[in-house]
Specification:
alpha+beta; 43% helix; 4-stranded antiparallel β-sheet; 449 residues; rotamase; 14 helices; globular; Chitinase A, domain 3; 17% strand; single chain; Triger factor/SurA peptide-binding fold; coiled coil; 3 domains
């Protein structure tokens, strides 16, 4: 899936003002939970419900039409980023989710227009061109051609851009001004962070699916299927952007560097504390729905991370042409290892490598964390002038990395008070933004074909 990122939309954590989020204009009182409807346990339908899997994916939202082609193009965009085949039932489920997302985008665009904050076509075109260049390294024309080649269209991306820009404007005017984070709250969190210096800080990705008592089982089933697809190689960023109902969806579910206490959910805290980088867990039931967590990385608060060290490396390698006899490859490999062991650091490595027909490549700006996991641990234990154990095979060639220099990282100071305040605001904006969108859905006139 193409990930659109015209900017990092800062959905602080606030909500639309009290007037937008309280009762409706007619004065109706909202009662939470299914008890408000006094539903019987034994439901008998007068007319059998339609199978959602055979419903045509088209709708009219307050008069604006969402066509089957709109859904097809967005689905093609998602499938293009996946490494595995989707079964027909999964594609149908994906189509239904895409339709719901397109309805939300339509409502966001309509609300912005109604409040005289309409996103112009010129703004959408400029953002689309920016995304082509910065996000994909393409010209606008090249991105147009790519999208058509995968069965999607430029219009599908532009529609998503328009919805994101519209929603950003609505939140900035109707939500964020009503969010209040006191200096006392920030200072209290700063004190807790200072007291925890040296403890672990986490970078997490989250996919949040909203659920209530009426749809909890269906949402749980959807979450299980998402987990299954992610473990089969699906893109977490793509799924977060498409399915997550948290404001972090726009950045692929990335919550940034946080302490677990900042999650403010004991279930999530307990799960994340047991995770290792790269691990996926969930779905985890929390108030309001289900969460899927990905542990992106970990580090020590206020302490320098050795993996941030910048290395100067020299790669020394010898290749074996196709068809090289096994005995000859073993002999040349042994000579290569012996020559490497006799090298006196990086100063004479080039001459000694050339003498045995080996090649060298230098890289003076590579972080330890950019190396494969197996090499990271080896590099952290090496001194300047030492080499890694040989790696590769006798069919193609073997190589080593020689450490020529290391710039150790500086100790970090942790998040600033401004960053902490911004995060608290984000959390509150996120909660109120969900209520805002829920109100738009409730008041909309939506007709399905």
């Amino acid at each position: 899936m193409i990930v659109f990122a015209t900017k990092m939309l800062k959905y602080s954590a606030a909500a639309v003002g009290a007037a937008l989020l309280a009762t409706s204009a007619s004065g109706q009182v909202q009662v939470q939970g299914s008890d408000a409807f006094n539903l019987p346990d034994d439901i008998s339908f007068v007319i059998e419900p339609q199978d959602p899997n055979v419903r045509r994916a088209t709708a009219r939202v307050n008069g604006n039409i969402i066509t089957g082609t709109d859904v097809d193009h967005r689905v093609a965009l998602i499938l293009s980023a996946q490494e595995q085949e989707f079964p027909p039932e999964e594609i149908q489920r994906l189509r239904l989710q895409v339709l719901r997302n397109l309805i939300d985008e339509t409502l966001q665009v309509q609300e912005a227009a109604a409040q005289e904050m309409e996103v112009t076509s010129e703004e959408v075109e400029a953002a689309y061109e920016r995304f082509a260049q910065e996000g994909r390294g393409m010209t606008k024309e090249e991105l147009d051609a790519y999208l058509r080649s995968i069965g999607s269209s430029p219009r599908s991306i532009k529609r998503q851009i328009q919805g994101e820009l519209a929603w950003d404007r609505l939140l900035r005017r109707n939500v964020q001004p009503f969010v209040n984070v006191s200096e006392g709250e920030v200072n209290e969190l700063v004190e807790r962070l200072n007291a925890s210096r040296g403890t672990t800080e986490y970078r997490l990705g989250e996919i949040f699916l909203s659920a209530n008592s009426a749809n909890r089982e269906q949402v749980k089933s959807n979450a299980d299927q998402i987990i299954e697809q992610l473990r089969a190689g699906g893109s977490f960023v793509a799924y977060a952007r498409q399915y997550s109902q948290a404001s972090s969806a726009i950045v692929g579910g990335d919550l940034g560097w946080i302490r677990l206490e900042q999650l403010q959910q004991p279930t999530l805290e307990a799960a994340a504390r047991q995770m290792t980088p790269g691990q996926l867990v969930g779905p985890l039931e929390i108030p309001g729905g289900y969460s899927i967590l990905l542990m992106i990385d970990q580090r020590q608060i206020g302490m320098a991370d050795p993996r941030d060290a910048v290395l100067s490396l020299k790669q020394i390698s010898i290749n074996f042409p196709p068809g090289t006899p096994q005995a000859e490859a073993e002999e040349r490999g042994a000579a290569f290892v012996e020559a490497v062991e006799s090298m006196n650091g990086c100063g004479d490595a080039n001459l000694r490598a050339a003498a045995i027909g080996a090649q060298t490549v230098d890289n003076d700006q590579i972080q330890v964390r950019q190396l494969p996991e197996a090499l990271q641990q080896v590099m952290l234990q090496m001194n300047v002038g030492e080499t890694t154990p040989p790696f590769g095979d006798l069919n193609e060639g073997i190589r080593v990395l020689m450490l020529c220099g290391r710039d150790d990282p500086q100790e970090t100071q942790g998040p600033s008070t401004d960053q902490i305040m911004a995060q608290l605001e984000d959390e509150r904006v996120n909660r109120r933004a969900q209520r805002y969108l829920r109100d738009l859905r409730r008041d909309a006139v939506i007709e399905y074909n």
